[in-house]
Structure of Thioredoxin reductase:
Amino acid sequence: MRDICIVGGGVAGLAASIFTARAGLDTIVVDGGESILARNASLENYPGFPDGVDARRYLRLVHEQAQGAGVEVELGRVSSVERIEETNPESGFVLETDGGDPLEVRRVIAASWSDSEYLVPLDVGRIQRGSKHYVNVDEDGRTAVEGVYAAGRLAGEPHQTIVAAGHGAKVGLTAIHDSDVNFYHDWVVPEGYFTGRDRDVPPGCEEIDDEERLERDVAARETILEAFAEPLAEKPTMHPSVDRE
Ligand SMILES: Cc1cc2nc3c(=O)[nH]c(=O)nc-3n(C[C@H](O)[C@H](O)[C@H](O)COP(=O)(O)OP(=O)(O)OC[C@H]3O[C@@H](n4cnc5c(N)ncnc54)[C@H](O)[C@@H]3O)c2cc1C
């Protein structure tokens, strides 16, 4: 049984997965299509990109980061989630996907804007606004069903990329705290930051020396330079109801 399945490999889902995988949870993301962000023409309000970034390029980098963190990404739509033993909250969940084998997991993060039909059998609590359903969560992303969380736009967060990413990260941290992983913060700090004060390096944190820091900077620059080297051929996805003839 895996530790966690994140339904939806868009902005919030991938952000959550980076945190859960880096904390050592066996993490799978099941993604049924493409992020709604693929419809954007130029992402210009995501901190860190002063002149904006092509949304497809951004999504590609987030995918690469998640996979580098050890996340497994499976393509397919999740069609249902049920408890393995209905009356046992510890028993975990079984997810049905179209095409793939059923998945057994301890926890589920729903980050699948705009589909939450697969959660109906669990009765997590959904709110309908217009044609869309949102999943009811507490301030940390927990639903009414223990072990099930929701993140991003599906959880009613504002329709902005940085907010979805931040909420995904926060809900990932909630799932980490609810699991039995020993965790303080996901921090990388200079050598001596903790040990120089006679403290152990807290779980989830890492101390690195200057040589390692410079090596990581070389790798980071190579990745970014390569990612931005060529103009992208991909175009934004148009709204399905726009007549392009
Ligand atoms: C045209 C347009 C332009 C935008 N421009 C900007 C902008 O300039 N700046 C900005 O900040 N924000 C922008 N946004 C908003 C931004 O794209 C969203 O707020 C953000 O993508 C929400 O992230 P999310 O993870 O909640 O959803 P998404 O990124 O859409 O991810 C949801 C994922 O879940 C998957 N999924 C759905 N159902 C299932 C299922 N049953 N099983 C498995 N997977 C499933 C989907 O395929 C998708 O990959 C724009 C949105 C649109 C539509």
